[in-house]
Each structure stands twice: as C-alpha cells, then as structure tokens.
Design a protein that fits this description.
Layout (H helix, E strand, L loop, with lengths): L6 E4 L6 E4 L2 E4 H7 L11 E7 L9 E10 L2 E10 L6 H9 L1 H13 L12 H26 L6 H12 L2 H20 L3 H13 L3 H12 L1
Antiparallel strand pairs: 1-6, 2-3, 4-5, 5-6
C-alpha cells in the first residue's frame, strides 16, 4: 500500500505458500521442483512467484525467491524474497548481506550506548533527538576504531609507500641487470672497446624491440 519494496529471508514453513507456475506451493516444494544452478554461481535458484492468497487477501504481489547456500552449513540453503522485480539476484544477495551489519549496529546501540534505557520520556521530538545522539556516538566510535586499526587511514604514508614501489619500474630493473652484466664481462674478459661495442650491438639486436627501448638510455650513458 505504501509502495515500498522489501528483501527478507523466507521461513521454510509448510504453512506459508506462494503461487508458482499456477500452483500453491511452499518454499521447500518450489526448491525441490526446480533445477538448481551449478558451479560457482552465487545462488542455487531464482524463481518469480506471487505473494498472497487471492481467496483471502484478494490481491497478489509479484516477488522473486532466490535460494543461496548457507555459509554455516554448505549442505543447507536459505531462501530470500524480494518484491522489486527490477533488480537482479546478485544485487538482492548484496543488499541482504548488509543485514548483519545493521543487526550489530542496533545491538551495540542497545547494549552499550543506552539506546533504550537512557531516556524514558514520551516526547516524540525528545526520543528522536536521543536516538540521533546515540547514533552519533556510534559513528564517533567507528571513526576512532578505524583510525586506530585500519591501515587505509594512514593517509599520506600509504601513498608514499605505493609511490616508492612504483619507482622501481620494469625499465629501471632491466637497465640495472644489463649494466651489471656488461661490467662483469669487462672485468672477467677485459675486451677492447671495439670488441665491447660489437658485443653490445649483437646482444641488443637479439632482444625484443620493447626491451631494446627499455635499456637504450642506460647504454647511451
């Protein structure tokens, strides 16, 4: 009635039925009647259904049931239902995956930040303000926790480390190797300048073009 969509877990109850391919079936019957996806697919099954019993409610809602593996027990499965038919299965799974973070958020607010015990008034505005202050406490703590534990917050030092790694490029590495090889040839075999030039030209001519371009500044020096 409000035009809002929902994503939720479906109970595997024989008493809750949906209209699927013209029949009233519960989620277990739907799961057993359909062919499952194999391989590395994120979900096992995705089927469109209609929610509601026209004999009782007089109206039905289009929905999609997506069955995924249970992480706690890979032999088991759970079913998700979504009333927004425009989004795909991966998006349904992604959105539902945020539920646990929301549960932890409310648990923390209730147990440690006094969401339900600090204020006992009946003023709606005061309750709204109290809730906002509790949520602000949680956000301050989350930012502090990330600054203290998350390496991504070390800011400029992180980018300096990345730049330092990027300094040793393929070209630079190849030049170092070639220079070391030439110095070793000079020291052991003691060739004349003419022999060294012939050796260098012969060596370069046998290299791929991209390597020739990479070591040319070193050889010129």
């Amino acid at each position: 009635q409000r035009g809002l969509n929902v994503i939720a877990m479906v109970k595997k109850s024989s008493k809750i039925t949906y209209e699927f391919e013209g029949k009233r079936m519960n989620v277990k019957q739907i799961f057993n009647a359909c062919k499952k996806r194999r391989g590395r697919s994120r979900y096992l099954l995705s089927v469109p259904v209609k929610v509601g019993d026209p004999a009782k409610d007089g109206a039905q809602i289009d929905a999609r049931i997506v069955c995924v593996r249970n992480r706690s027990n890979l032999k088991d499965w759970i079913a998700l239902i979504c009333t927004d038919m425009t989004i795909d299965e991966n998006e349904i799974i992604r959105i539902y995956g945020k539920r646990w973070d929301i549960e932890v958020f409310f648990k923390t607010c209730k147990s440690f930040l006094k969401l339900g015990t600090e204020y006992h008034g009946l003023s709606y505005d005061a309750l709204t303000a109290h809730t906002a202050f509790v949520f602000l406490r949680y956000m301050f703590m989350s930012v502090e926790k990330r600054d203290d534990e998350d390496d991504r917050t070390i800011g400029e030092l992180f980018y300096c480390m990345v730049d330092e790694l990027a300094d040793i490029t393929f070209n630079h590495s190849l030049q170092i190797l070639v220079e070391a090889m030439f110095e070793s040839v000079k020291e052991i075999f003691q060739p004349t300048e003419e022999q060294m030039e012939r050796f260098t030209n012969a060596f370069i001519s046998r290299l791929p073009k991209y390597m020739q371009e990479a070591i040319s500044p070193s050889l010129a020096a």
